[in-house]
Design a protein that fits this description.
- This protein has 315 residues and is mainly alpha-helical.
- Helix content is 75%, strand content 0%.
- Helix 9 runs antiparallel to helix 13 and helix 9 runs antiparallel to helix 16.
- The longest helix is centred in the N-terminal third of the chain and has 31 residues.
- It starts with a helix and ends in a 6-residue tail after the last helix.
């Protein structure tokens, strides 16, 4: 496969997954905003979210104040923000259009229709109905594109690079969601706020479609260490880091070339550490240092994939 084609299908999938994960993050923020909290707490939550997502600098370059309405618009509809939901859907469509002949007609139509439909969601409309409908729609369209990909594409290199983009992006976002929420929730309330604590951890699990899975696996109260274990180490949880890395490692084996041996080795080493790891070991020195280290490994793999397979970045 031409590296340019691989580049477009890889980033098409990453942008669709990124739009979905951003909708998930914003959805949990919206749920938590229904709880009584001060303006300072709201600003602290949004600052942490923008920072862990790597968008705090870009936001501050445009806005002086951090408040819910401004941040939500920046992350949902700001076309000057390349990582907003609308920008991600536009980028997914542009990449798909470039390699339209490589995709099935059903997949192209699903992605193109998503871009055309997103323009119907004006900020003024959401001010009246609330953002939940929009978040659910973004998640549904991402689910649809993945389902069409699995259901219609030939299992060739185009399919493998599409799936590789999906799972690299998902691993990255799962780590970011857990990091920002773990630390915000960990110290936000006293032990007497059991109901609030439960609601917030439930909202975090809902944001990654894991609430029902948590109940089925643990059948007990929600605790931070078990949430971390579910999202990091459970190989049967489709949004966990362990699941994503198992898929990434397998896909790298399927598309291997003469330059990718070291990338495969690093992915396999990371996958094995998750397969045989225990949450007590990961949290021994604190969860945040581990999440930082894991995120660096994901970023390194993404960079190596670009160097091994995709169009080189020119400066």
């Amino acid at each position: 496969m031409l590296s340019r084609t691989a580049d477009h299908v890889y980033w098409m999938a990453r942008y669709m997954e990124r739009a979905e994960n951003l909708a998930r993050i914003l959805d949990v923020h919206h749920r938590m905003s229904l709880l009584p909290q001060s303006a300072g707490e709201i600003e602290r939550q949004w600052t942490a979210t923008l920072d862990i997502m790597g968008m705090l600098g870009a936001y501050r370059a445009q806005h002086d104040v951090i408040d819910t309405d401004t941040v939500m618009h920046f992350l949902m509809f700001d076309r000057d923000n390349p990582s907003s939901i609308v920008s991600c859907l536009r980028a997914a469509r542009e990449n798909a259009h470039t390699v339209r002949g490589t995709l099935t007609s059903e997949l192209w139509e699903a992605i193109n229709a998503t871009w055309l439909k997103v323009n119907d969601f004006a900020p003024s409309r959401l001010a009246e109905t609330g953002p939940t409908e929009f978040f659910d729609w973004v998640k549904y369209r991402s689910h649809l594109s993945r389902g069409v990909t699995v259901g219609t594409m030939l299992r060739d290199e185009a399919f493998h690079f599409t799936r590789l983009g999906t799972f690299i992006e998902r691993a990255d976002n799962t780590l970011r969601i857990l990091d920002v929420k773990y630390h915000l929730l960990r110290g936000a309330h006293t032990p007497n706020d059991a109901a609030v604590d439960y609601y917030q951890w439930s909202a975090l699990l809902h944001s990654v479609s894991a609430f029902e899975i948590y109940r089925r696996v643990y059948r007990d109260q929600i605790t931070p260490s078990r949430v971390a274990e579910l999202l990091l180490l459970r190989p049967d949880m489709p949004r966990s880091l362990a699941y994503c890395m198992r898929e990434v490692y397998g896909l790298l084996q399927a598309v291997a070339n003469g330059r990718s041996a070291e990338t495969q080795r690093r992915a396999g080493e990371f996958e094995a550490s998750l397969r045989f790891g225990r949450i007590e070991e990961l949290m021994r020195d604190g969860l945040h240092p581990y999440l930082d280290s894991a995120l660096e490994r994901i970023l390194d793999l993404g960079q190596r994939i670009s160097e091994d397979f995709l169009v080189p970045v020119t400066t």
